[in-house]
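Look over this record as teaching material.
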Amino acid sequence: MFATTTIEAESKTAFYGDLAAQLAGLLHDERDFIANAANVAALVFNLVPDLNWAGFYFLKANDVLVLGPFQGKVACVRIPVGKGVCGGAVARRQTMLVPDVHAFPGHIACDAASRSELVVPLIKDGQVLGVLDLDSPLPGRFDTDDQAGFEALAALYVAASDF
C-alpha cells in the first residue's frame, strides 16, 4: 500500500523534487498508462496547493484529445487539437503556461472557477500522446518553477507507462 506524505519544502524546486520522489515510488512496478494516470492525478491533486483540476487528456487518431483520469469537477470530454490551451499545447508540442485563462483567445472553460492553467504535452519517441492539464482558481498560480516541476513529473509518468 502506498501512502502519500505531506510535503513541506522551502522552495518550489525542493517541493517538486519531493513530489517526483513520491511519484517514482507510486509508479514503481506498474506499466499501465491508465492506472498510472489515475494515480498521478490523485497524487498531484492532493499534494499540490491551489488546484481545482488535475488530469489527463489522451490524443486519439482523429486529432482529438479525449478525457482521461482526473481529479476535480466534471470536465470537457473532447478537445480538438489546436483548440484551447490543451489543444494548443499539442499543436505546438510545448508546455503552455497561461496566467489568466480569460485573456487566452479560444480558452475552453470547463470550470468557470478556473483562472490559470498549465498544460504539459506527453511526448514519447517524438510522438505526442496527450497532455497533463492543471487548473487553478487563482490567477497567476503557475510560474516557470511549476512548469519545470510538472514537465519532470510528466516525463516520469511517460517513462513509467506503456502506451
Observations:
- The chain has a mean pLDDT of 95.
- The longest strand covers residues 127-136.
- Residues 12-160 form a domain with the Beta-Lactamase fold (CATH 3.30.450.40).
- DSSP finds four helices and six strands in the chain.
